[in-house]
Design a protein that fits this description.
Elements: H1 6-17, E1 23-26, H2 34-45, H3 54-62, E2 72-78, E3 81-89, H4 97-100, E4 105-111, H5 120-134, E5 140-144, H6 147-155, E6 159-166, E7 169-176
Helix pairs in contact: 1-5, 2-3
Length: about 180
C-alpha cells in the first residue's frame, strides 16, 4: 500500500469538505486574502492584546502558507471570497505548550457574521480535526477568552481542560478529541 504525503492527505480532506456553495482550501492557494484575514482577527483580538498589530497578523499568516507541515491556515470561500479562517499550529505560547504534549493548537478562528449559523464554523473545526488526525495527532487544543466561543466549543464536543489567567485575561482551554464534532 502506498503512503500518502501530507499534501495529498490535506488535499483529500479539503476536497471532501467542499461543496457547491462553500470551498475549503489552504491559505497557500490564496495568499492575496491575508490582509482581509488580518483585519478580521485584529477586530476580534486588538482589545485583548495591546501589542497586536495588523502587520504582526499579516506576518503570522505569511508563516502559515504551508501544505506539507504545520503551521497552516484553512480558509472557507464563497464565490471566491473569504468567509472564514482557521489555523493549525504545531505549538502555542510556551506557557501553554506543555498542555498539548506535541498536539496542534487552533488559532485565528473566525467566520464572517453574515455566514454565522450556516455550519461553516463547525466544518472548519471538523476539517482541522480530520487533517490533524490523519497527520498523526490524537487531539487539538484551543483557548479563548470569549464566552460565546467558549459555549461554541463546548457545544461542539470540546472538553474543557482548565480556566486560567493568560496575558492578563481569563481564558478557557479546550481539547478536541478524535470523535466527530457535533
Amino acid at each position: 500500500m502506498e503512503t500518502m504525503t501530507h499534501q495529498e492527505i490535506i488535499a483529500e480532506e479539503l476536497e471532501k469538505a467542499s461543496d457547491e456553495n462553500i470551498q475549503y482550501q489552504l491559505l497557500k492557494a490564496s495568499p492575496q486574502i491575508i490582509p482581509a484575514l488580518a483585519d478580521w482577527v485584529y477586530a476580534d483580538w486588538y482589545t485583548y492584546d495591546p501589542s497586536l498589530t495588523k502587520e504582526k497578523l499579516i506576518q503570522g499568516f505569511l508563516g502559515r502558507l504551508h501544505d506539507d507541515k504545520l503551521p497552516l491556515a484553512l480558509v472557507a470561500l464563497h464565490d471566491n471570497h473569504p468567509i472564514g479562517v482557521l489555523s493549525l499550529k504545531a505549538t502555542e505560547d510556551p506557557e501553554l505548550a506543555p498542555l498539548s504534549q506535541g498536539n496542534p493548537w487552533l488559532g485565528s478562528h473566525h467566520v464572517l457574521s453574515s455566514y454565522a449559523n450556516q455550519g461553516i464554523e463547525k466544518q472548519l473545526l471538523q476539517l482541522a480535526k480530520n487533517i490533524a488526525e490523519r497527520l498523526g495527532h490524537r487531539h487539538l487544543f484551543v483557548y479563548t477568552s470569549s464566552p460565546t466561543q467558549r459555549d461554541t466549543y463546548l457545544a461542539q464536543g470540546s472538553h474543557l481542560i482548565e480556566q486560567r489567567p493568560f496575558r492578563d485575561h481569563p481564558v478557557w482551554i479546550f481539547k478536541l478529541n478524535s470523535k466527530k464534532i457535533q
